Amino acid sequence: QVQVVQSGAEVKKPGASVRVSCKASGYTFTDYYIHWVRQAPGQGLEWMGWINPNSGGTNYAQKFQDWVTMTRDTSISTAYMDLSRLRSDDTAVYYCARSILTVVKGFDYWGQGTLLTVSS
Amino acid sequence: SYELTQPPSVSVSPGQTASITCSGDKLGDKYVCWYQQKPGQSPVLVIDQDSKRPSGIPERFSGSNSGNTATLTISGTQAMDEADYYCQAWDTSTVVFGGGTKLTVL
After folding, report:
1. Between vectors from CA A60 to CA B52 and to CA A90, what angle results, nearest 5°?
2. What is the mean pLDDT of residues A96-112?
């Protein structure tokens, strides 16, 4: 069965960097985009970008272009999201989710979310 | 950048029909998806490609999309449907979410 499992909660200080991982199983990793979506406390969903695990190509939301990096390791079916120069307003739950490469469709499987707390 | 607009809240009585709208410029030219999110949980896809229900989603959930407005309709709303609902669309290679609608079942 399809599973998308994220790394655990993180606490970071302002100015630091963080890496969140997203391990996929139960399907062909390179057939689906991995998207990253964040949700600040009490707020809505905010799309950050996607990575195409097949090519390694990425597309970041304009807001995040200078401080997010998305990568993948196809040998272990894992995607990573690195966020640098953290600020307190980066405190949020970060989700990864998949959508198929070949057709415009929704995100059918989501990770459990990773809580990032940025505090001095 | 492309924007999707949803009402912040919608209320419905149990057993009645709830309609949640999502508006955007020429939205009918794009595919719209809808997600349900309950407190402390990850979002769940309830409507894909305007009107398709993924496996396991009850038949009471339906969707439509035309002109500038997409609509999620929940027929015979149940207490378990109380949640936040988000619309989502692709704009060329980027993804946009609506601001979300809190559905209250009174």
Report:
1. 100
2. 94
Please count the CA atoms within 13 angstroms of the CA of A75 that sit on its side-chain side: 0
Beta carbons of A18 and A11 less than 8 angstroms apart: no
**Which tens digits make up the pLDDT trace of B34-76?**
999 999 999 999 999 999 999 999 999 999 999 999 999 999 9
Helix, strand, coil fractions of chain B, as percent rounded to 5: 5, 50, 45
> Which candidate, B60, B36, B38, B37, places its Cα nearest to that of B46?
B36
Judged by a CB distance cut-off of 8 A, whether residue B93 touches chain A is yes
Taking an 8 Å cut-off on Cβ atoms, the answer to whether A47 and B96 are in contact is yes
Output phi, psi for A10, to 5 deg: -130, 145
Region A44-60: mean pLDDT is 97
| B contact test, residue of A32, A98, A101, A105 with most B CBs within 10 A | A105
pLDDT band at A102 (very low <50, low <70, confident <90, very high): confident
- CB atoms under 10 Å from CB of A69, counted, come to 16
The answer to whether A45 contacts B93, with C-beta atoms less than 8 Å apart, is no
Cβ–Cβ contact B33 with A under 8 A: yes
d(CA B89, CA B94): 9
